[in-house]
């Protein structure tokens, strides 16, 4: 039986999936979704065109995988994000 997420959690998962610096592993650690489960969730929750754009954006992007990420990338967001 699939996990049911609250609307707030679902929104946060989608937001994290779109962020370039948030790795698939970080999403799995926080929400228990591996990369394949996340892809299925995104396919269900996004419009077809948005899903294709997201897949094109995340395919081959080294920052979405901790193992491929440069050690210089130690944060999950850009410095200009979350300004106070």
Query: Quick one: how many beta strands?
Result: 0
Distance between the termini: 40 Å
Helicity range: 40-55%
Residue fraction in strands: under 5%
| Individual helix count | 4
> Uncertain runs with pLDDT below 50, 5 residues or more?
none
| Helix-strand topology string | HHHH
Round the Cα radius of gyration to an integer and report it: 13 Å
Protein name: TIGR03643 family protein
InterPro entries: CHP03643
Pfam family, one: DUF2805
Organism: Deefgea salmonis
Question: Would you write up a description of this structure?
Answer:
The chain has a domain of 58 residues. 50% of the residues lie in helices and 0% in strands. It starts with 6 loop residues before the first helix and ends in a 26-residue tail after the last helix. The mean pLDDT is 82. Pfam families: DUF2805 (PF10985). This is TIGR03643 family protein.
Set out the fold topology:
Elements: H1 7-18, H2 24-31, H3 35-45, H4 48-58
